[in-house]
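fyi for ur records
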Amino acid sequence: MKKLILLACLFLIGKGGALAGNLPANYVVLLDLSDRILQPEQAKRDQELIRIVFETFEQKVRNNLIINSKDRFRIAVAPQKSMSVLPGLDELYLDMGKVPFAQKRSRLEALKRDLPAKVARLYAAALAGRRKPADFTGSDLWLYANNNLPSDLETGYTNTWIILTDGYFDFEKNSNVLCEGHRCTDSSVLDRLRKMPDWRKALAARDEGLLQIKKPLPPLSVYVAEMRAKREYLGEMDMLTGVWQKWLGEMGVRRMKYGSREGLLKSADLLRSFLKT
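which gave:
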């Protein structure tokens, strides 16, 4: 009888976690490889945060006994006009639901083993020949969210979007900015808000903020990590966070959190705490 109960439990788990009521997890890590990676130790910090996300993904897979896992992990890079396709990016994606049972354990362990070196090579390629901010065109976070994010998310999954960025939508030499009224795909909204006596009231206006993403998205949680104020404006971080909060809220995101660029141990703990809840 005990064996029959155990087999029934395994069958239900294999059918998608019906017994536990858990959806498979989909982790998408978006990298902003703009001039922010010129900051001291930034590549090292990003790589540690990526490791923490993968660690969470791995634990989720193992909780599903590996062979029953349909969980997903992906590293994506925000588009940059000055940067061609980065090497090895396709190797930083693992969909356990599409891996044959006999290969699931080996594929998981192979990515765990190779991930640090592959991510390090990715950052090295992004920095190659670039030593100053003018060498970068800026990462188009909006373009990724509009063109790529809908297909990187999945209905029927617990979608978690981790964004490693300073928080700005800057284009040093890129004129490909879209606008509808005051709403644009770059950080020009911040320039206007700094001039306002009450930036919160101004940001609440219908025709203010980042250009809205109008494509439907499945439910997702968002963590914006490594945000850093570039201007010495009083309340810059609050303003930057407010712009993100309105933009994500208009996408339908209800669970979002923001982490500033602080000590690495604190940043790592904040990310772990978000991923656990």
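The chain has one domain: 26-276. thats all i got for now
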